[in-house]
Amino acid sequence: MSCGASHNIDCRKVLDAVFLYLDGECNGSDHSLIRAHLDECSPCLREFGVEHEVKMLVARTCGGERAPDSLRLSVMARLRAARSGADAAEFRPE
Predict the structure, then answer these.
(1) Mean pLDDT across the chain
(2) Cα 50 from Cα 13, distance rounded (Å)
(3) In whole angstroms, what is the distance from residue 94 CA to residue 90 CA?
(4) Is residue 5 assigned to a domain?
(5) Domain encompassing residue 70
(6) Residue 6 included in any domain
(7) Based on the structure, what is the number of domains in the chain?
(8) Counting beta carbons within 10 angstroms of the beta carbon of residue 10, is it exposed (0 to 12), middle (13 to 18) or buried (19 or more)?
(9) What angle is formed at CA 35 by the lines to CA 84 and CA 21, rounded to 5 degrees?
(10) Cβ contacts of residue 92 below 8 Å, gap of 6+?
């Protein structure tokens, strides 16, 4: 996804990292870059809102259970691969 506007970070990279952002797993500089992008990009902010709601729904219905780290890493890798085709690269602002 891309809104067509010029940003410091490509929309796709922000959306690939939105769950890391939601979980507080971004380092300080990545967190600031993602927050700044979401503040200026309405399409990404809407997508972020949807992701946030899904995360909250899962948290409510799963009773606070936490998935094993190996499962979490596997799911995150598959999500990245699905979003960017065969390229499952980590979030790297450009």
Answers:
(1) 78
(2) 17
(3) 12
(4) no
(5) 11-83
(6) no
(7) 1
(8) middle
(9) 55
(10) 13
Domain annotation covers residue 2: no
Q: Tokens for 91, please give them.
A: 């979030």
Token pair for 34: 């993602």
| pTM passes above 0.70 | no
| Angle at the Cα of 37 from the Cα atoms of 64 and 25, rounded to 5 degrees | 30
Q: How many residues are listed for the chain in this entry?
A: 94
**pLDDT the model gives residue 88:** 38
* Residue type (1 letter), 69: D
Does residue 27 form part of some domain?
A: yes
User: Which residues of the chain, if any, have pLDDT below 70?
Assistant: 1-5, 64, 85-94
Kindly state the tokens that stand for 19. Answer: 């769950």
Predicted pLDDT of residue 74: 92
DSSP secondary structure letters along 26-46? S-HHHHHHHHHHHHH-HHHHH
